[in-house]
Amino acid sequence: MPSTEIILGLDPSLRGTGYGVIEVLAPGKYRALEFGSIQLPSKLSREGCLLAIFEKITEVMDRRTPSCVAIENTIFVQSVQTAIVLGCARGVLLLAAAQRGLAVFGYSPKEIKSASAGTGSAAKQQVGFMVRVLLGLETTPDSDAADALAVAMAHAARSRFAQTAIDLHSPARRRRVRT
Asked: What 8-state DSSP symbol labels residue 5?
């Protein structure tokens, strides 16, 4: 992995998508370049939220020019409606990455928590605290941004091993490839 690799981590949600951009300085050594969450009002329509997420993430991608994207996979949802909404938010994030030719790597919540806090059952507060410590931040990011930074760090930690990337440029758009 080149020492200047830049990874965009994403934590999809319709009303609070988190994003975090890190630079990999050396194995296990990262620097936060930018992070935040896209907080959207409840009165905004689903379509309006998706457009806002897409526009903000494309701005971040164009400004920071990441070499890849790491995104939290949806493993468990409380209802079919929640799964559909999360799928829509994930979809616009994947579209933004595909338009820029970026490889996308997905990680389960357990993998992300293990990489940042040392245990797959870590609470959100533990993840946020460890993200702050590992990145040398003065304050703990909000939970959405902390989760996104943790996703990026999980990818950086795991990228020395073969990973499965979503090949966004294949005709089927769903074929998986080994990197």
From this structure: -
Contact 143, 19 (CB under 8 A): no
Asked if 11 is an active-site residue, the reply is: yes
List the one residue out of 50, 48, 44, 47 whose CA is nearest residue 13: 50
- For residue range 63-72, what is the model confidence (pLDDT) as tens digits? 999 999 999 9
The type of residue at 20 is: G
138 is catalytic: no
Domains of the chain with CATH codes:
6-178 (3.30.420.10)
Q: pTM of the full predicted structure?
A: 0.86
Task: Report the alpha-carbon distance of residue 128 to residue 138 in Å, rounded.
Answer: 12
Backbone angles phi, psi at 2, to 5 degrees: -65, 145
Query: Among the options 23, 72, 111, 147, which is catalytic?
Result: 72
Give the type of residue at 154. Answer: A
